[in-house]
């Protein structure tokens, strides 16, 4: 197995694993578990975890982009990996800090002020859309890798 193939597969696993385990499992479970801590504290505790997961996704996407030229024979692989890098960078550097800053201005126990809750919910929707775009790009990259493997075998 060529090193670029190994690096590419590990990068895909890192990025998709951080999205699924971090953003889709751990953070929602932490925010939903208000039996031990109140909702405001749970939201504050989820911020460092979201930032680290965003960094792992970004690192995985960058590694996939670096390896994709030698890893995949198809030109669409580099394009998909660069799209994933761009979305991951915007998500980590812009959306996640803004999202947690917006939720930090809200009292989740009293559910006030309503205007700030609406802004925070809209940012949450944008963040979830960016996660969806990253998943689509990374799964497409994995599909290209499977097609390339079938052709070369």
What does this structure look like?
There is one protein chain. The chain has one domain (3-152). Helix content is 86%, strand content 0%. It has helices at 3-32, 39-71, 76-104, 114-152. The protein is elongated and about 60 Å long. The two termini are 12 Å apart. The model has no long low-confidence stretch (mean pLDDT 92).
How would you sum up this structure in a few lines?
86% of the residues lie in helices and 0% in strands.
**Structural class category:** mainly alpha
How many distinct helices? 4
Strand content: under 5%
Summarize the main sheet: none
Query: Looking at the structure, what is the overall shape?
Result: elongated
Structural domains: how many: 1
Encode the helix/strand succession as letters: HHHH
Q: How many β-strands, per DSSP?
A: 0
Mean pLDDT, nearest integer? 92
- Into which percent range does the helicity of residues fall? over 70%
CA(first)-CA(last) distance: 12 Å
- What low-confidence regions span 5 or more consecutive residues with pLDDT below 50? none
| Assembly context of the chains | single chain
Gyration radius (Cα, Å) is 18 Å
């Amino acid at each position: 197995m060529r090193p670029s193939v190994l690096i590419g597969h590990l990068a895909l696993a890192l990025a998709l694993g951080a999205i699924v385990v971090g953003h889709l499992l751990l953070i929602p479970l932490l925010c939903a578990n208000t039996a031990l801590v109140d909702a405001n504290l749970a939201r504050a505790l989820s911020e460092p975890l979201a930032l680290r997961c965003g960094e792992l996704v970004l690192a995985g996407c960058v590694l996939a982009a670096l390896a994709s030229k030698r890893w995949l024979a198809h030109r669409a692989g580099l394009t998909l990996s660069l799209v994933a890098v761009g979305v991951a960078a915007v998500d980590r550097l812009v959306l996640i800090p803004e999202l947690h800053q917006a939720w930090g201005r809200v009292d989740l126990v009293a559910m006030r002020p309503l205007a700030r809750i609406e802004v925070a919910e809209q940012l949450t929707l944008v963040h979830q859309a960016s996660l969806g775009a990253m998943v689509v790009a990374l799964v497409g990259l994995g599909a290209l890798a499977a097609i390339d493997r079938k052709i070369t075998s």
